[in-house]
Amino acid sequence: xxxxxxxxxxxxxxxxxxxxxxxxxxxxxxxxxxxxxxxxxxxxxxxxxxxxxxxxxxxxxxxxxxxxxxxxxxxxxxxxxxxxxxxxxxxxxxxxxxxxxxxxxxxxxxxxxxxxxxxxxxxxxxxxxxxxxxxxxxxxxxxxxxxxxxxxxxxxxxxxxxxxxxxxxxxxxxxxxxxxxxxxxxxxxxxxxxxxxxxxxxxxxxxxxxxxx
Length: 213
Fold this sequence. Notes:
This protein is α/β, with parallel strands linked by helices. The chain has a single domain (about 1-210), classed as Metal-dependent hydrolases (TIM Barrel). Helix content is about 30%, strand content about 25%. It has 7 helices and 10 strands. The chain has helices at about 20-30, 45-50, 85-95, 115-120, 135-145, 175-185, 195-210; strands at about 1-5, 30-35, 55-65, 65-75, 85, 100, 125-130, 150-155, 165-170, 190. Strands 1, 2, 3, 4, 5, 6, 7, 8, 9 and 10 form a 10-stranded mixed sheet that branches.
């Protein structure tokens, strides 16, 4: 089973991917997307209509002692409001039986969590993100290995052409949280960086828009 753990649709303020188009491409490539829109689970009903396998989630914005940061919940069934306290978000995710996932950890350019004490509270660390500079992914991987954390990867796709470049291959027969966590121990990451100019443009646009969202 191949899973991309970090995918956006047009329910994110900075993405253009229609859920129906994502579902079609996911089916053709045999890659399961985790739907992790910014502050929204609005795409989930549309993905359910597609009848493909996917993981419902959300990319949250949480408050920490050092400022705002991004946090992903996987296997969610209820949207969580943005800007809530980090630990409150963890409690809400755990109450849903969701997996806690750190996207683009240590990436100071993209609201990545860089507080190691907070990262220790999470179950999975993203050690390859197609939009990150390699030094941030390396830092995330070193942390995950040092702390014995599970590791995963995501395309962080905001445009359809990006989906399919990055995924984790797992020995998994069912999309179920506990089984997925176990399978991640031996997961094999395949990753490709998005074009650098695309990353710069997206960062600039997101930085301008995010304060108003």
